Amino acid sequence: MSELKVDKVSPRTGNYVALNTVGSKNIIINGDMSIAQRGTSESGITSSTFVTDRFGFEANTMGTWTVSQDTDVPTGQGFAKSTKIDCTTADAAPASGDYLILVQRFEGQNLQYLKKGTSSAESLTLSFWVKSNKTGTYITELRDVDNDRIISKSYTIDSASTWEKKTITYAGDTTGAFDNDNARSLDLRFWLGAGTNFTSGTLATSWESRTNANRAVGQVNLADNTANEFYITGVQLEAGTTASDFEFLPVDVNLARCQRYFIKYDLPTNTGAGGTSSWGSAINVAMVDIFLSLPVTMRVSSSSMSLGVNSLQMYVPATGTLYSGGTFAFAYNTNNNNIAIRYTHGSNVFTAGQMVGLLGNGTTGYLTLSAEL
Questions:
Q1: Angle at 31 (CA atoms; ends 26, 34), nearest 5 degrees
Q2: What is the DSSP string of 292-313?
Q3: What's the whole-model pTM score?
């Protein structure tokens, strides 16, 4: 049974502390950058992607990038990984609508304890470690998606290529409650570059209705030179006006929190006994349904998930036959604990009722499920 979390007074500061009812003071998931299910590096990025779990990188016609999970971390702080963002094609003169952002998004039902939209709305304090050769002013933003409201704060990278810890506090917002559901309600955005559409106004240092011109005023351009790189780790967002020590979670707990939004199944390749745990049956001569029990409860059911496949094949143990090619899709809408995958072959190769297994084709076979916000 999980520990009951109650509001209390901090013994360290004497301040009132609102505890997250999902069992973690840190609203951020994977703030130590230790989980990277999709892989540890992606290059040639010109739009949006994920590398380290839960942190989306968004680029809008503003250079070309490599994003990776890295081992460069602040010394003596307990971190093993960071996220590195490296410019490989520069854009020294961005167009007005260009932007670069690192973002994490949050479900409204996990934020109800913040009491947003009431007179008791909680302040939020953000802390993180950052390093870049590009010194100057950077912007972090909270965006209330439900009510289209923003608040932005600046911080400064003072010393080139040196790890620095930053702490930023945002006032509570007494206007507009978060929806109590599993949809996107709040974004935390680290701006890395922005065109004039986002920099030409006055920085929104207090909560206000979203005006794009007020979101990233003063932001430096990380894209102006291919020598530029940006590292970040130890990201924590918590209720209150002070930053506490980073909350390290066991790897299994951290992974499970990430898997609510993304799961990667690496499939075995051998056809012998126990070669795959993913079995199904042929529903007719051309189709097979494979059933998977998910390791965690995902955010949404299969009708709202995205399915990805790479180098997969079907194995019929009765005949010893392997079939590749064909198409994969969700068989029908299932809940967020179990899914059914339908394989359709181009020819009539199965016998209805045959047991069929899902295997990797070579060493890279995998299946992914995405329920990202």
A1: 135
A2: EE-SS--SS-GGG-EEEEESEE
A3: 0.92
